[in-house]
Design goal:
Layout: E1 17-26, E2 41-42, E3 59-69, E4 74-78, H1 85-92, E5 100-105, E6 108-109, H2 114-120, E7 121-124, H3 136-146, H4 151-164, H5 180-192, E8 198-202, H6 210-225, E9 229-234, H7 237-243, E10 246-251, E11 254-259, H8 261-266, E12 272-278, H9 283-290, E13 295-300, E14 306-311, H10 318-327, E15 332-338, H11 342-350
Parallel strand pairs: 4-9, 4-10, 7-8, 8-9
Antiparallel strand pairs: 1-3, 1-5, 2-3, 5-6, 10-11, 12-14, 12-15, 13-14
Helix pairs in contact: 3-4, 3-5
């Protein structure tokens, strides 16, 4: 199926996405999926003082986020739960009103021209939000009708998408009996029914089996090749690496890195990361490791003898690390080697894993 074929809507030029200094502060717990959970930072508040009315708690989900997403680009927002990814998508898709800042879809300012924006976008939420009283085909047909497609075109597009997402054999069954993966595939098919110029995918691979995930990746690439812009949020490093032309890594509502996956991986000192654990902490040993050939940076991870060694080689460095430890009468307990990856970059900037 060629996405966009046989669709008689007006032809649009490729559309980009921009944000400027986006900030979102919740004064109550955000709805599930709106801010990625409760991992966002509490805003600093002055002490209200004894006897005074306590101020409402503030949760900072976005803290001045500025993005420039090129037309026709697959752009990945990568970060842990609570980083602000879903809040960003919520603002860009008119579901979450920002506390301050601006956002545009093409030439349309999102919160000033909401109707125009909604005609241009397709949205796949973090969790399927399908009507369980309808069949898969009805869900697609009703969605297309909302956007003004005629009956014949609705039928053609529904048949094509059901086939592409491998749902034809379940097309006329109620979706209440679908598996989670089938619901996710149907949600993405629904978002594509009106051939949107910009497609938002919020954690689309969550809970999918490997085969379905690969199918999804193929469909996203295919849709992008028809000239569409795709914004993908994920905390799966391999997904951002495989799909995205560029990636922004965010944490606590702020951007910490931006570039192509290759550029970001190469920006890690040395590329390789050796996570080593000794039976005790030793500053002289860490200094010795820093002097080894190919080692770019050494960081003590905690007080229990763990350290992160950034280097331009991996396995060949282990014997030298073991020799240095033995010379200091310290036992090397464990070594874990990570090849150049976006995970390494996040570890380097924050000291913690994307999965934490």
């Amino acid at each position: 199926m060629a996405f966009g074929a046989n669709y008689n809507a007006p032809i649009y030029t490729m559309i980009g996405i921009r944000t400027r200094d986006l900030r979102k502060v919740y004064t109550s717990a955000p709805a599930f999926g709106a801010a990625g959970g409760f991992g966002a930072r509490p805003a600093a508040r002055p002490d209200a003082g004894k006897g005074k009315k306590q101020p409402k708690p503030q949760i900072v989900a976005l803290d001045g986020l500025t993005l420039e997403i090129n037309p026709g680009e697959i752009f990945g927002l990568l970060g842990p739960n609570g980083a602000g990814k879903s809040t960003t998508v919520g603002i860009l898709t008119t579901r979450v009103e920002p506390t301050s800042g601006q956002a545009w879809i093409g030439e349309h300012e999102v919160w000033q021209q909401q109707v125009a924006v909604k005609r241009l976008i397709g949205v796949v939420a973090q969790r399927p939000n399908l009507d369980f009283s309808l069949t898969a085909r009805e869900i697609l047909l009703f969605h297309a009708a909302y956007f003004g497609l005629d009956k014949a075109e609705r039928g053609r597009r529904a048949d094509a998408l059901l086939d592409r997402f491998k749902l034809t054999d379940r097309a006329d069954q109620m979706v209440r009996g679908f598996s989670g993966g089938m619901m996710q595939r149907l949600s993405i098919a629904r978002a594509m029914m009106h051939d949107p110029q910009v497609l938002f995918l919020d954690e689309p691979s969550a809970g999918l089996d490997p085969q379905t995930k690969l199918l999804l990746w193929d469909i996203v690439r295919e849709y992008n090749q028809s000239g569409k812009t795709v914004l993908l949020t994920t905390h799966y490093m391999e997904e951002a690496d495989a799909l995205s032309h560029r990636v922004a890594i965010i944490d606590h509502g702020r951007m910490i890195a931006l570039g192509t996956p290759a550029e970001l991986k190469h920006s890690v000192p040395g590329g390789y990361l050796l996570r080593v654990r000794f039976n005790q902490h030793s500053e002289p040993l860490l200094q010795h490791l820093q002097a080894l050939g190919g080692v770019r940076e050494v960081r003590a991870s905690d007080a229990n003898g763990s350290a992160d060694v950034y280097a331009d080689r991996g396995g060949s460095l282990i014997p030298e690390v073991a020799t240095a430890a033995a010379a200091a009468n310290i036992q090397l307990c464990d070594v874990h080697i990570l090849e150049p990856s976006l995970e390494n970059l996040f570890l380097h900037h924050t000291g913690r894993s994307l999965r934490e």
